[in-house]
Amino acid sequence: MATCPINSDSVEEINDPGAAPYGNFINYYTFNPPENRLSLIPATLLQDLGYSDGHQTTLILDVGCNSGDLSVAFYRHLVQEPVCGGESDRFKVHLLGFDLDEALIQRAQQTNPLPSSISFIPLDITTDADQLQDYLNQHGCSCFHLCLCLAVTMWVHLNHGDSGLLGLLSRLASISQYLLLEAQPWKCYRSAARRLRKLGRSDFDHFKTLKIRGDIAEHARKHLERDCGMELMQSFGSTAWDRKLLLFRRRRD
């Protein structure tokens, strides 16, 4: 789930499937398959949120989509699209997935089975979100109806610090009606730092100076509710990796 800039020094690490300082694992879905999340999310989620009108365009954003496996599986899960067959016209649902790693995005584009409904673009949301606004304008929408931010927060946090994490959450809240968040717990931060040291590299630039520690999901909830005009709507439980799936919605005045 790459969300930070990649430079030439990182090539060796990326080629090692067990090491990815930006979250851009080349084999991510072999050890965390889409079913780990989808088993917790009801297939009726869009209808439950009020997006069941066949004449209404519904937009989904997948942040840090990696090679797109989860994006496609999530789309099919929600619109009940069979694995074999044409694209569903039950809802006008479009999904945009983005990742910083251009190689992963190229793989996603090449293997995309639903190109008229699902799109993939390379994008670093920490520096530029213009393409997201362009996509919204293209579909005549002011915001994404549902945003997925799954296993992304830690990588932004480690590489951009506390301000980077809070900035990401604020930006996603500003362009989303609903936000489905899976924040990695603190133990994952320690594991990521250990993997980096095993490669003979120094710690993440911000790891030792982070003030936001402990229950990261709770810190995220407080920021979204206090500073971003969102409220926790539902928890879908925890994944097999003990990560909470939390659904937030824009607060209604």
Strand order, largest beta sheet: 3-2-1-4-5-7-6
Question: Low-confidence parts, pLDDT < 50 over ≥5 residues?
Answer: 3-15
Task: Spell the H/E element sequence.
Answer: HHHHEHEHEHEHEHHEE
For the biggest sheet, the summary is:
7 strands, mixed
Mean pLDDT: 89
Radius of gyration: 17 Å
Strand content: 15-25%
Give the strand tally: 7
Secondary structure blueprint with pairings:
Elements: H1 11-15, H2 28-31, H3 35-38, H4 45-48, E1 57-63, H5 69-79, E2 92-99, H6 102-111, E3 118-122, H7 130-138, E4 144-150, H8 153-174, E5 176-182, H9 186-198, H10 216-227, E6 230-238, E7 244-250
Parallel strand pairs: 1-2, 1-4, 2-3, 4-5
Antiparallel strand pairs: 5-7, 6-7
